[in-house]
Amino acid sequence: MATLIRPVEPISDPSAAKIATTKGISIMPRAQTSHPLDPLSAAEISVAVATVRAAGSTPEVRDSMRFIEVVLVEPDKHVVALADAYFFPPFQPSLLPRTRGGPLIPSKLPPRQARLVVYNKRSNETSIWTVELSEVHAATRGGHHRGKVISSKVVPNVQPPMDAMEYAECEAVVKDFPPFQEAMKKRGIEDMELVMVDPWCVGYHSNADAPSRRLAKPLIFCRTESDCPMENGYARPVEGIHVLVDMQNMVVIEFEDRKLVPLPPADPLRNYTAGETRGGVDRSDVKPLQISQPEGPSFRVNGKFIEWQKWNFRIGFTPREGLVIYSVAYVDGNRGRRPVAHRLSFVEMVVPYGDPNDPHYRKNAFDAGEDGLGKNAHSLKKGCDCLGYIKYFDAHFTNFTGGVETIENCVCLHEEDHGILWKHQDWRTGLAEVRRSRRLTVSFVCTVANYEYGFFWHFYQDGKIEAEVKLTGILSLGALQPGETRKYGTTIAPGLYAPVHQHFFVARMDMAVDCKPGEAFNQVVEVNLKVEEPGKDNVHNNAFYAEEELLRSELQAMRDCNPLSARHWIVRNTRNVNRTGQLTGFKLVPGSNCLPLAGSEAKFLRRAAFLKHNLWVTPYAREEMYPGGEFPNQNPRVGEGLATWVKKDRSLEEADIVLWYVFGVTHIPRLEDWPVMPVERIGFMLMPHGFFNCSPAVDVPPSATDLELKDNDIATKPIQNGIIAKL
């Protein structure tokens, strides 16, 4: 097969050939076909797995290897800058600092590297490997590969994320367990095909949950019809059965039928598929809505590089985070390409439940760190909410046994109409100008058991970036005894209640406002609106003003939202000013938000101390990626991750700034959330604040609808007996 990546020499190689030039334009060979930030290809994943497996000391070790994740080792920022400047379009040499005599450009980029998290099923050990992908073929033949192990280490006292293969095997083991079958017979269920077993990580509540064992504590549900694959099985939770599974050896190690709670009756409103909702009658009055882009989209795609309306950035994807946005910049006229952020992603989410009863008190899912948002992503071939001209991107992962799986159409890129961008009518002349807003949306959707989460990054023509999460799916329910009610949830059907709970998300934003790679010229200020004290400066008692405070160090920068003072935070460049002399910046504007409602001694807060504040700020450190540490599954260590890192209290006065924004929603279930939840949206904005000299949206041209308004009067005629009256 053809070679995808040729052997390359390191950047520091002094023997690198001098680059030929023609009329001042550098001409160089393409040493790599993959940009340094491109996700690993299927071939690269195969080579990385084969390299690690071949390095196993014995056949037993090799056979017991299970591959949790294989991801790109993201290179240093100066390597990315070099690649963007001279190796990959659109070729931006302005990214590199000017040097006397011109830049010294190497002929090749460093080899790409893969990082593997490997679980040894025999020894219950977790190890981390780094493999250099010096030469990658489209298919390995006869076990040959071109990878090189750079490093490997065993990480003690941890459990890596669970895998879908483990979950499927766990379900089968529980359903085949004779005492479990007897317990289900007591509840009137003999057909095990009706039973659904959802394995949940045990978290960490006591030493019994220590990572010396790989454990799962399943939740049990039961469908009513074996021939209906789309039946909502979550409508019949099975309570009173305690099951603990050793996931290493895949055996049930604890079982107890503690309490016989009758199965809830089959709810006639439980299903959500077409023709089976609300009595089996779907709406018939929804007319087609078509989005047409006859000239194609306004965005341009080159590999993973995106350009749209002066924005440009790269798309990445990881098994844990899902979608990653790299190298975000805005092309600002004669000021050229202006960086905004190096890396944007959602790095963790936590879902704590508020019911103290068993089993709900243990429901504290870390859906990124325990399961992986990316590994649970959908193929949008199976249903996509995007309209218009769409560009899809595939995602490649390793499965548990080291094979490569591809999620086709995993990431969706498209444009959306977004209402009014701006408008003004001069009341004296009657003349008006109006512009419609368009935004570019990059998104993916994942399912974690009963819940769906859509993760969206929106780019706007006025320079804003919006991060949005859409929550939908099916409630995680509990069963009630006849006549019983629970104060910690909402009764939504006979024998069914939905516990109160919260959803928290953590966005990690490696900012680079007006900073080229290698520059660390950002700082963060907090802004609060203050009411002026009565007196000579406020004789009319109407005065208020914005008060700024520089967050000088990490401990000072642990902050919470405060809507009463319109609190927000600005990332500023300390050495770049706009036309009024103010420092250029981007501000983080919170949306609706909350903090954990659990008590300070809640067990899940041992692993999720980062939820105690809405904002954390750290200087960039390569190894600081996940707010709860890399391995939150069964983690016994208190406050690992962000809460520990900030104790160093590093300076933030002029630094390479990383924002960690924690945002969440408190869900008090409604009857209207059943059987499937309408989407709830939460998020935040990154908005230019003194970044531009005026509105960047003022040059957006009028759209066809702005220039020619049509009177579609059919919708405004009165209706008589359901028929449009003839006027």
Automatic annotation (TrEMBL):
- Per the database record, which ranges form the Copper amine oxidase N3-terminal domain? 160-263
Task: From the Swiss-Prot or TrEMBL record, state where the protein is found.
Answer: Peroxisome
Highest rank taxon of the organism: Eukaryota
List modified residues, type 2',4',5'-topaquinone. Answer: Y451
Q: What is this protein called?
A: Amine oxidase
- UniProt KW keywords: Copper, Disulfide bond, Manganese, Metal-binding, Oxidoreductase, Peroxisome, TPQ
Provide the GO MF annotations for this entry: copper ion binding; primary methylamine oxidase activity; quinone binding
Keyword Manganese set for record: yes
Major localization listed first in the record, in broad terms: other
Describe the PTM: Topaquinone (TPQ) is generated by copper-dependent autoxidation of a specific tyrosyl residue.
Q: Where is the Copper amine oxidase N2-terminal domain?
A: 35-121
Q: Please list the cofactors this protein needs.
A: Cu cation; Zn(2+)
- Record's Gene Ontology CC terms? peroxisome
Q: How is the cofactor bound?
A: Contains 1 topaquinone per subunit.
Q: How does it assemble?
A: Homodimer.
This entry's Enzyme Commission designation comes to 1.4.3.-
Please name the top-level EC class of this enzyme: oxidoreductase
**What organism is listed for this UniProt entry?**
Herrania umbratica
